[in-house]
């Protein structure tokens, strides 16, 4: 190799390698510090695009899970209120049976009717005041005939298969004494009390049907939540495989690139001494 003093090609080569090694070392530092393999689109544009799409889908599914949980909470509130109404009607039927027997007098029958009317008013109060997030839910808002249906949005798009219509599935009409056909019942007389026993039995069957539909819908929402959770988890894992840094591999690269940077720096020092060999040519 020719000896030159104006252009030290060996030093230039060593400097180029030092710059390349420094760039790679910087990238390794960035991946270790952030935990992300793809720092910019030029690192791996295809994987970046795919991972971002997967992460967006996972976030969308998680919002759908929150929507389902909100719907489940609403149904739990409705179920709790109707459970109390069922208990009230059970007590009303018990009072009706007591009033229908011939072994009590008019005074006792009027006292029984007084409690009967009081708890019937409470049944109506529950129907008119039970609400979730400001929405009355036992006054017909969850009826299939309601003007505005409550629809839960889930999944990755707005197709009908990714929607659950709570009105259609539960179909809860206004749960008042009037709608249960028990509002005009009286226990003040033995004959009317006897008729009330049958009416109250029919009302209990109506409430049991409502609770059955509520339970079925609650189970459906629970299954949907589990399915969405599994899908979101798998999508997140797929995106992480593409984008997240393999820390074991990155630490191995850190060691390698650190050694290369140090050796490149050392070689620049040695290459800068190379032109001094020209001195040896002087006589």
Describe this structure in words.
There is one protein chain. By secondary structure, the protein is mostly helical. The protein has 2 domains: 9-35 and 245-275; 74-215, f41 fragment of flagellin, N-terminal domain (Up-down Bundle), CATH 1.20.1330. Helices cover 67% and strands 4% of the residues. It has 6 helices and 4 strands. The model has no long low-confidence stretch (mean pLDDT 88).
Write the layout of secondary structure elements.
Layout: H1 9-34, H2 45-100, H3 106-129, E1 131-132, E2 135-136, E3 151-153, E4 163-165, H4 166-170, H5 190-243, H6 247-272
Antiparallel strand pairs: 1-2, 3-4
Helix pairs in contact: 1-6, 2-3, 2-5
Give the assembly state of these chains: single chain
**What's the mean pLDDT score?**
88
Largest sheet: 2 strands, antiparallel
Name of the CATH homologous superfamily of the largest domain: f41 fragment of flagellin, N-terminal domain
How much of the sequence lies in strands comes to under 5%
The secondary-structure element order is: HHHEEEEHHH
Q: Please report the first level of CATH classification, the CATH class of the largest domain.
A: Mainly Alpha
Number of strands: 4
Compute the CA-based radius of gyration: 39 Å
Structural class: mainly alpha
Catalogue the unreliable spans: none
Give a short synopsis of this structure.
The protein is mainly α. It is 67% helix and 4% strand. It contains 6 helices and 4 strands.
């Amino acid at each position: 190799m020719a000896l030159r003093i104006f252009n030290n090609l060996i030093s230039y080569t060593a400097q180029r390698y030092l710059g390349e090694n420094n760039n790679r070392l910087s990238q390794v530092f960035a991946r270790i510090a952030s935990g992300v393999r793809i720092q910019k689109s030029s690192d791996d544009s295809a994987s970046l695009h795919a991972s971002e799409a997967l992460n967006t889908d996972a976030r969308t599914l998680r919002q759908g899970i929150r929507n389902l949980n909100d719907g489940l909470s609403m149904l739990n509130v409705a179920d709790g209120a109707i459970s109390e109404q069922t208990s009230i009607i059970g007590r009303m039927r018990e009072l009706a049976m007591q009033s229908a027997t011939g072994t009590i007098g008019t005074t006792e029958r009027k006292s029984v009717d007084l409690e009967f009317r009081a708890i019937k008013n409470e049944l109506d109060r529950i129907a008119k005041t039970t609400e979730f997030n400001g929405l009355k839910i036992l006054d017909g808002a969850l009826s299939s005939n309601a003007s505005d249906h409550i629809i839960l949005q889930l999944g990755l798009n707005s197709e009908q298969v990714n929607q659950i219509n709570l009105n259609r599935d539960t179909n809860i009409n206004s749960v008042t004494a009037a709608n249960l056909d028990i509002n005009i019942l009286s226990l003040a007389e033995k004959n009317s009390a006897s008729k009330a026993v049958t009416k109250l039995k029919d009302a209990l069957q109506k409430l049991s049907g409502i609770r059955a539909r509520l339970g079925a819908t609650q189970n459906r929402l629970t299954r949907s939540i589990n399915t969405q959770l599994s899908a979101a988890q798998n999508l997140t894992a797929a995106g992480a495989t593409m984008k997240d840094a393999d820390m074991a591999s990155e630490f191995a690269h850190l060691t390698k690139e650190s050694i290369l940077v140090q050796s490149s720096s050392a070689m620049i020092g040695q290459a800068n001494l190379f032109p001094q060999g020209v001195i040896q040519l002087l006589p």
